[in-house]
Task: structure prediction
Amino acid sequence: MDIAPSLANYWYFHLPNFVLAALMYTMLGRFLLGLMVDADSPNYIWRFFCRITDPVIAIFAVVTPKAAPPALLWLFGFVWLFWLRVALHYTLLVFNLAPRAGGAS
Result:
């Protein structure tokens, strides 16, 4: 099966899905790394995770209770991003715009 036509034909599905997945797993990585390093660690990997996920966390902090500790907020962000991916896929399926199994266009 050649995936190049699928990527070209369904870029509006694959590109947002990829970005959401990358953010989602980066958020999970931040949570797991946060179990091992301090919040103000100078570690360059930790700083990368913080720099990438801080804007997303700021958005989800609006809908997350203020009493939640930062680590819980990171997990909530992971869950919110997961459900955004599900909503994207479902919405495109409803409008018959999502790629389907078996290569049918």
Q: What stands out?
A: The CA atoms of residues 36 and 43 lie 11 Å apart.
